[in-house]
Design brief:
5 strands, globular
Length: 169
């Protein structure tokens, strides 16, 4: 089961080969498209802001996600899953970041189930963004702490890999 749902960890720990054949971090078969949006319990935004509009750096990434209960043959299973509704990946100058986030928020708020919260990584430009958005009425912000214990993006993904391998995204 570990080999199937967490192949990178399995290959590293049991095979002593951290680069499994065929890749181990992302497998296309773990992700699928639904023919229509599910019945969402709630929706939310995630925002990973970048330092600059220069394309040599990572872009700012904003995602709109919905939480829903998995159904099989019309019967709810009690298992929850995430549905990626929309995203934007842009190189945005720090001075324009708040306006672009608010623009994305407004677009997502037109959805049948508008976002309840925006989770923003609390680092560099995210700190300023969180402070400015917290002053606004009607937008709930959750700051996501980045610490040494939380590790790199790759480490955080590996931690979530069994969930994703279970086709719950």
């Amino acid at each position: 089961e570990l080999q199937e749902k967490s192949p990178y960890v399995y290959a590293s720990q049991f095979d002593q080969n951290p680069n499994p054949a065929g890749g181990g971090l992302f497998r296309p078969e773990w992700f699928f498209e639904l023919e229509k949006d599910p019945d969402f319990i709630c929706t939310f935004l995630t925002i990973d802001s970048a330092e600059t509009e220069k394309t040599v750096n990572d872009p700012t990434a904003m995602s709109f996600l919905g939480l829903y209960e998995i159904e099989i043959f019309g019967k709810k299973t009690g298992e929850l899953a995430l549905h990626w509704i929309d995203c934007i990946e842009e190189w945005i100058d720090a001075k324009d970041l708040e306006d672009e986030v608010l623009k994305f928020w407004r677009e997502c708020a037109r959805h049948d189930v508008p976002p309840l919260i925006a989770a923003i990584e609390k680092k560099s430009t995210g700190v300023t963004l969180i402070a400015s958005l917290n002053k606004l009425q009607g937008i709930k912000i959750m700051d996501v702490q980045r610490t040494k214990a939380s590790g790199s993006k790759t480490a955080r993904y590996i931690e979530m890999q069994p969930y994703i391998a279970s086709k719950r995204v």
